[in-house]
Design a protein that fits this description.
By secondary structure, the protein is of the alpha+beta class. It is built from 7 helices and 13 strands.
Length: about 300
């Protein structure tokens, strides 16, 4: 970001939104990264020469993605309500989730991932059991499979935490007496991987949705996730924290030298070692560890446990 006056920084020169420039000095744009590399690291007297701008742009994007996965942990938060389909569409820049919660009265209740929430694709068949195809020869699919319909109906019930489960078995309470059909799991203890009174979810990465159990219907879901930092393909909006800027230059230099056929192996190894050293430095700088935060946590080390 170019240097601007305090008036431009705080008020955006009187235009809306006034917050457009707030915090921008922490970051350097993708455009500036490419320009700086072409100016300072490319030339006849440099290790990198005879390289085109689009090559530098490609490796710069890859470097920003890698640092987002490893160190920056660019966490974004998205909130929306879940409808009757019990699905949450993943955002386009989603890489991995950090936490998925239900928001109630301003409090977040974390949900747990449950591999027993099933989903499937079901093909359409005629009365004779033959598959049905469209005019292009592609098989027709049901809007919802039987597994999806069961999930929307609240089946199967949640193990160990459902109101109809007692003593490790499914059962029914009739006139104050319990009747059981079959057992689930052992009789001693519960399955800790599912020991959560809140609802559960399972991510279908291929379809790009989160499938929830029936208890979150009409609830407000908060998704905290790691972004790839590519801002949906808008290069003008891609930025990198200045504390990781040196790593991006080292990554671009290593990637270019590693793909050149006439580069000596020791030069590539040296560039790779420099890249890894810059990555470690970036992680340390971005770790955001402060003595005051540690002190607040350590104040409870002498607390008596009742």
């Amino acid at each position: 970001m170019a240097y601007i006056s305090n008036y431009q920084y705080y008020t955006n020169s009187g235009t809306v939104p006034q917050s457009a420039n707030w915090g921008e000095y922490q970051f350097v744009s993708l455009k500036d990264i490419v320009n700086n590399f072409m100016l300072m690291y490319v030339g006849d007297d440099k290790l990198v020469n005879n390289i085109t701008r689009y090559n530098v742009l490609f490796h710069a994007k890859r470097g920003i993605q890698e640092i987002n996965y490893d160190a920056l942990r660019n966490i974004k938060v998205l909130q929306q309500s879940v409808g009757d389909d019990l699905r949450f569409v993943l955002p386009p820049d989603y890489v991995n989730y950090v936490r998925i919660s239900v928001e109630k009265d301003g409090i977040l209740f974390p949900l747990h991932e449950n591999s027993q929430i099933n989903y499937a694709t079901e093909y359409l068949k005629d009365n004779s059991g033959n598959l049905l195809f469209d005019q292009d020869g592609e098989v027709l699919e049901e809007e919802l499979s039987q597994l999806d319909r069961d999930r929307l109906a609240g089946l199967p019930k949640q193990q160990f935490l459902d109101s109809g489960l007692r003593y490790g078995q499914w059962g029914w309470c009739v006139d104050g007496s319990w009747y059981f059909s079959y057992g689930i799991g052992g009789y001693y203890g519960l399955d800790t991987s599912k020991a959560n009174v809140n609802d559960s979810f399972r991510i279908n990465k291929q379809s790009g949705v989160i499938n929830f159990s029936s208890g979150v219907n009409a609830q407000s879901i908060v998704l905290e996730y790691v972004s790839d930092g590519m801002e949906n393909g808008n290069d003008d909006s891609v930025t990198i924290n200045k504390l990781a800027e040196d790593y991006i230059y080292s990554y671009i230099r290593w990637a270019i030298l590693d793909n050149k056929i006439d580069t000596q192996e020791y030069v590539v190894r040296r560039a790779q070692k420099a890249k890894m050293a810059k990555l470690r430095n970036a992680k340390i700088r971005l770790s955001n560890m402060h003595s005051g935060r540690l002190l607040m946590s350590l104040r409870g080390r002498d607390k008596w446990i009742k």
